[in-house]
Amino acid sequence: MTENEIAAGGSPLGKEKSAIKINKVRKVFTRNDEEIEAIKEVNLDIKEGEFVSVVGPSGCGKSTFLHIVGGFIDKTSGEVIVNGKEVNKPGPDRGMMFQESTLYPWLKVDRNVAWGLEVQKLPKKEIKERVEYFLKLVGLWEFKNNLPSELSGGMKQRVSLAKVLAFNPEVLLMDEPFGALDSQTREMMQAELQRIWSESRKSVLFVTHDIEEAVFLSDYVVVLSKRPSTVKEVIKIDLPRPREISIRKSYDFVDYRNKIWDLLHEEQNVKQLRGV
User: Fold this and answer.
1) Residues 6+ apart with CB under 8 A from 266
2) Residues 78 and 107 in one domain
3) Residue 10 falls within a domain, yes or no?
4) Do 38 and 157 belong to one domain?
5) What angle do CA 188, 260, 247 make, to 5 degrees?
6) Is residue 107 exposed (0-12), middle (13-18) or buried (19+ Cβ within 10 Å)?
7) pLDDT above 50: residue 60
8) Any idea where the ABC transporter domain is (predicted)?
């Protein structure tokens, strides 16, 4: 199995092919016989190989939306389609990363990455190749025999990323995966994720509350409105790749950051005026 086959499943990327299609997705929760509309209507069309971030006011339903795409939460109405198949439950075509690492503390790093592949009963040779490839991709092959307790927070998240990528999902869903890290480690992980994404070319839907993180990583930033959320605006991030950390000082970067901040500030002002 070649590196390209491991990373991309052997299939070329089609620039115009939809990876994720969201059609009129709505979510209503019922609590104590009271209906709470979390998502009013979201429509998106994410093309294969794109990195798309979602930002919005606190409590607007960003994570709820991502979990609906992942199949972990049922939608009230609408359609979620991943590579032509409707989503009704979790599946191996979607790899999910959370804010905290999801490693088994009693397993060494390589065994953590291999565990899901063993459950799928893949051939031992293929499991070994995938584990080695993805641990090298995230720069942690030399730590393959370490326990998670012996790793830093950033290293744990890199192992978690290797674990998800080893499944070879068609899309990556990431729910503030760097939110618990300190600012320096967070910037390092953003740069690492950009490098890994450029090599794997997975389609990514990334939820964050950090505007600069969204601008640095993304091809597009989706700005959600206050709850019940809709898509307020989709902003194309036309910055050259690969992006160095220094790009954060550029006028274009700051302009994007300020535009998104203004959109979110508008939503916050509306909430304050209405007493929400």
Assistant:
1) none
2) no
3) no
4) no
5) 40
6) middle
7) yes
8) 20-251
Q: Which of 92, 117, 112, 114 is nearest to 169 (CA)?
A: 92
The answer to whether residues 108 and 223 belong to one domain is no
**Do 213 and 178 form a contact (C-beta atoms < 8 A)?**
yes
Q: Same structural domain for residues 120 and 181?
A: no
For residues 32 and 116, state if they share a domain: no
pLDDT over 60 (residue 170): yes
| pLDDT tens-place string over residues 185-196 | 889 889 989 988
Taking the C-alpha atoms of residue 244 and residue 241, their distance in angstroms, rounded to an integer, is 8
CA distance 174 to 206: 5
Residue 270 has what pLDDT?
54
Provide the whole-model pTM: 0.87
Edge-to-edge strand ranges of the sheet holding 85-86: 85-86, 77-82, 18-31, 34-47, 229-236, 220-224, 51-55, 203-207, 171-175, 94-97
The CA-to-CA distance between both ends of the chain, in Å, stands at 55
214 part of a folded domain: yes
pLDDT in tens, 33-49: 888 899 999 999 999 99
Q: How far apart are CA 116 and CA 234, in angstroms?
A: 35
Select from 168, 199, 219 the last residue of a domain: 168
Residue 166: name the closest of 205, 116, 124 by CA.
Answer: 116
42 plus 87 within the same structural domain: yes
Tens-digit pLDDT profile for residues 21-35: 999 999 999 888 888
